[in-house]
What we know:
Layout: E1 15-18, E2 22-26, E3 30-35, H1 48-62, E4 70-78, E5 84-86, E6 91-100, H2 108-113, H3 119-135, H4 140-143, H5 148-162, H6 166-169, H7 174-191, H8 193-201, E7 205-207, E8 217-219, E9 223-225, H9 233-236, E10 237-239, H10 240-253, H11 257-271, H12 280-301, H13 305-330, E11 333-338, H14 345-356, E12 360-362, H15 363-368, H16 390-409, E13 414-417, H17 423-436, E14 439-446, H18 449-462, H19 473-479, E15 491-495, H20 500-521
Parallel strand pairs: 11-13, 11-14, 12-13, 14-15
Antiparallel strand pairs: 1-2, 2-3, 3-6, 4-5, 4-6, 7-10, 8-9
Amino acid sequence: MGDPSFYPHAVTRLERLDTHISTVFLTGPWAYKLKKPVDFGFLDFTSLDSRRHFCEREVFLNQRLSRGIYMAVVQISKNQGGRIFLGEGDEVVEYAVKMKQLREEESLRWRVASGMVSGNDMRNLGFLLADFYESSRRDSEIDRYGHPDVIAFNMEENFYQIRPYIEDVLASEQTEQYEFIRQVSRAFFLNYSNLFNHRVASGRIRDGHGDLRSDHIYFSDGIQIIDCIEFNDRFRYGDVVGDLAFLHMDLEHLGREDLCQEFLAAYAERADDFEMYALLDFYAAYRAVVKVKVACLRWEEMESPKEREALAKEAMSYLQQAYRYALQFSRPTIWAVMGLPATGKSSVAGMLSKKLSLPIFQSDLIRREMPGVTETSLGVVGYDEGAYRSTMRQRVYGKMLLMAMDELKKGHSVVLDATFCNRRWRDELRQLAGDLDTNLVVVECTSDEQTIRARLQRREGEGGISDARLEHLPKMMREYETPSELPPEIFLQLDTSLPQAQVIARALSHGYAKKREQVKALGMG
């Protein structure tokens, strides 16, 4: 197959590419992909029948996300004279997948490196993936792969398979990073078992791609996605965020976090799956560890010291990336949602709490439970009177921060819902985050005065946990100290007059980016 005359068509340029499980021959118009006769435990291509079977699976599965690329499974035969040729013959010696050869310049990886990818390209990719997962197969067998024990098995298998290579391939200091990733991943299951189970119940476990990365995505006649996992169903079955996290991890490895933000936000909004942000770092770490494993397996195959050195650097780079994700999902975050009454802050805080599976502490509820507060001191009273007088408000904020501190010390993130209208309360919030070494994302909800007035007017007959009314607005606006002191790495302003899906998408997308930057700023990973 390394000879151009072997092929029954014109060959413009012949090139051979190898991975640890396959060999691909590029001829110009067509590509031919063969399975290597290897057995790694998680795949077994040692028999000719198994290689034929998995070639057929590859064609079938990849036609879900591509058009006119995967043509057929072709035979490589030998005639009675011993000549080996492409096509049917007396004896089949091998099988190959025949594909239309795509141009490298059309791949997402090439376009990223060349600066030729737009935000609109990434949004279209996010929409495509949302539609794909919505229509992809789901049943009780596939659901099983979303359960924590199955995910834990796959995760532990990766760590087990990397273990023999730690001394030979990875740097000595990375042994501690490897152990940290493994331990905090295990802890994540204990803290978020309900979230994993909810993902199953809400239909987020699907027959996905399994190897979604930038060199498998092409902008050719629309968007084409190739090379899904065909050799082991359990690597393809799972939570859709596992697929998304692979591409997210790959794009961040290429230094384009901004592109991640675009396609993830588009997916979340189209699929109504904002909950995926709660799992993104965990799965990104998992996928980075998979890349470490693959590099280690290829390292073992190589004999050239130069090739081994390059693969060792690749493995170390991906382990460092997995370490950063592990820091991100194990380091608690305070999500403080602030703003004037009727700006939608309680709605945003509630959505963050729900989608991220986090406890929420609301100043309005805490006030009602404070000692000495009675029904007469609550309700619609004058501004700065009763339970809303200055000294009581200070006690409410103190109590809220104490309650948050208890959760943060357990390693749990929290959502806080309060106006934080005075700088001194925001200073205390920042002091708490600094003392406990946590991330802090402050989300200020804003809306135009006309909208605020209309919302407060509707409260007159509806009630609720907030007693703020239209008559209080002028004084509240005068006393509201804008959070100009907050640095951009922790502060996000939200216009809540936009549709709710857009508001929560922006809160989670930009909030996630700020968490990432805070971890980077600490020199961690």
